[in-house]
Design brief:
This protein is α/β, with parallel strands linked by helices. It folds into two domains: 106 residues, Aspartate Aminotransferase, domain 1 (Alpha-Beta Complex); 242 residues, Type I PLP-dependent aspartate aminotransferase-like (Major domain) (Aspartate Aminotransferase, domain 2, 3-Layer(aba) Sandwich), CATH 3.40.640. The protein has a seven-stranded mixed β-sheet with strand order 2-10-9-8-5-3-4, with helices on both faces. Strand 6 and strand 7 form a beta hairpin. It binds pyridoxal-5'-phosphate. The site of pyridoxal-5'-phosphate has 13 residues, from helix 3.
C-alpha cells in the first residue's frame, strides 16, 4: 500500500500559528547520516545546539535541554518537575495555553489558583503584585506569547513580585523563542520551555527547555520523584551532561535541523531577526486594517509581532475564507481556538515569511478571497 503512494505533500506557505516554514538549511540537514547517541560528532552537535539555545533564550543557564517531544511535552516537563503535589501554583490565565498549563498542574495534583483576565489582555505589575502577595504561591506560571489570543507579556511585571515572595517562575515561551525577545536572565524567569516549529523554523518534535541555577538547586533538593519518568529532568540531565548516560534515544535529524536553524539565526543576528518580525507584524496589521479586519489585541504594545489575531469583517466566513486561501493560493492561516473559535484568524509571519514581499503576497491573496 505505502509503496504505491510516494510521499508528495503540497508546498504550502505556512502563515498559520505554527508549524511555520522550515528553514531550507534545516531541511537539507535532515537528510544527513544518522549516528549513535554518544558518537563524538553527535555530542559536538548537541553542545553547539545548547550554546545556540542559550543565545536565543537570552540566558547563561547551563541546564538548557532539548526535550524529545512537542511543546506540550516541554510544558509537562516544566510543570511536573517544578510544581509539587499539594503545592500552590499561581497561574496568570488569559488564553488557551495558560488553561493547558492549569490542566497540566492539576494532573500533578497541585493546588492551582488563577488570576483571570479577558483574552487578548495582559497583566499589570500591580495586578501581579496583588495576586502573588495574596496567594503566596510556591510557583508561578505565565505564557509569554499566548498564541490563542496574540498577546505578548514579557513577564517583567510578574517576576518582580514572584521573586519578592520566593516563588519559582515558569514561562511558556513556545511562540516567542527565536522570533521576539525572551531574555530569561534579564526578565528573571527560572524555568522556560519552547518548541521547535515556530520561531526557530524547524519541524516539531524537539522542544527547548532552560532552567536557572536557583531552580536547578531547588530541583536537586526535591525529595519525592516527579510523577513522570520520561520527563524527569534530573534523569534526562544525565544524558545531556558528561558522561552522557543513556536515558532516551534522541532523533539526529531533528538535532541537525535545529543546529542549522540556530546557525541561520546567528548569521542573521538575533536582534535583526526580531526587528524583521516587528516590521512584518506592523505591515500585516496595517494591511489587514485596510481590508476591514480588526486586531483582536487592542493595545499595539501588547501584540505578538509574528502572530497576529484579527477579527474578520462581518461578511467574511472565516472557515470558508481559510479554505479558499488554502485551495487557491496554498496559503495556510489559522482559525481561533477555544472561546474565540470561529471568531478570529491567527496569522503567523515567522522566519522567512516575515518579509515585505511575502506579507504583501498574503494580503493580496486575502483581498482576492474576500
Ligand atoms: C503558547 C503555546 N504553548 C504550548 C503549545 C503546545 O505546543 P505543541 O503544540 O508543540 O505541543 C502551543 C502550541 O501552539 C503554544 O502556542
Amino acid at each position: 500500500m505505502t509503496a504505491a503512494k510516494p510521499i508528495a505533500p503540497p508546498k504550502r506557505l505556512m502563515f498559520g500559528p505554527g508549524p511555520s516554514m522550515v528553514d531550507p538549511r534545516a531541511y537539507q540537514a535532515m537528510a544527513q547520516p544518522i549516528v549513535g547517541i554518544r558518537d563524538p560528532y553527535f555530542l559536538e552537535i548537541m553542545g553547539e545546539i545548547q550554546a545556540g539555545l542559550r543565545e536565543v533564550f537570552g540566558t547563561a543557564n547551563e541546564k538548557t535541554f532539548m526535550i524529545p517531544g512537542a511543546g506540550s511535552a516541554a510544558m509537562e516537563a516544566a510543570v511536573a518537575n517544578f510544581v509539587l503535589p499539594d503545592s500552590k501554583f499561581a497561574l496568570f490565565a488569559s488564553g488557551h495555553f495558560a488553561d493547558r498549563m492549569s490542566i497540566t498542574a492539576k494532573r500533578q495534583r497541585a493546588n492551582v489558583v488563577r488570576l483571570e483576565k479577558p483574552w487578548g489582555e495582559v497583566f499589570t505589575a500591580e495586578e501581579a503584585a496583588n495576586f502573588i502577595g495574596r496567594e503566596k504561591p510556591d510557583a508561578v506560571g505565565f505564557v509569554q506569547a499566548e498564541t490563542s489570543t496574540g498577546a505578548y507579556q514579557s513577564g517583567r511585571a510578574i517576576t518582580a513580585a514572584a521573586k519578592q515572595s520566593g516563588a519559582l517562575v515558569i514561562a511558556d515561551c513556545v511562540t516567542s523563542l527565536g522570533a521576539m525577545p525572551v531574555e530569561l536572565d534579564s526578565v528573571g524567569i527560572d524555568v522556560a520551555y519552547s518548541c521547535s516549529q515556530k520561531g526557530l523554523s524547524c519541524p516539531a518534535g524537539l522542544s527547548p527547555l532552560s532552567v536557572s541555577p536557583r531552580a536547578w538547586e531547588w530541583l536537586e533538593r526535591r525529595t519525592e520523584d516527579p510523577h513522570t519518568w520520561y520527563l524527569d529532568l534530573r534523569l534526562m540531565d544525565k544524558y545531556f551532561a558528561a558522561p552522557h548516560a543513556y536515558h532516551h534515544t534522541p532523533s539526529p535529524p531533528l538535532y541537525y535541523a535545529m543546529h542549522e536553524a540556530l546557525a541561520a539565526i546567528e548569521e542573521e543576528g538575533l536582534r535583526n531577526r526580531w526587528d524583521r518580525h516587528f516590521r512584518g507584524g506592523k505591515r500585516l496589521v496595517a494591511g489587514l486594517t485596510r481590508l476591514g479586519f480588526e486586531p483582536f489585541v487592542k493595545d499595539p504594545e501588547d501584540r505578538i509581532w509574528h502572530l497576529t489575531t484579527a477579527i474578520p469583517p462581518a461578511q467574511v466566513n472565516e472557515a470558508v475564507f481559510r479554505e479558499k486561501l488554502l485551495t487557491r493560493y496554498n496559503i495556510e492561516v489559522g482559525g481561533g481556538l477555544g472561546q474565540v473559535a470561529g471568531k478570529v484568524l491567527r496569522i503567523g509571519t515567522m522566519g522567512s515569511l516575515a518579509s515585505e514581499e511575502n506579507i504583501d503576497f498574503l494580503l493580496e491573496s486575502m483581498a482576492a478571497c474576500m
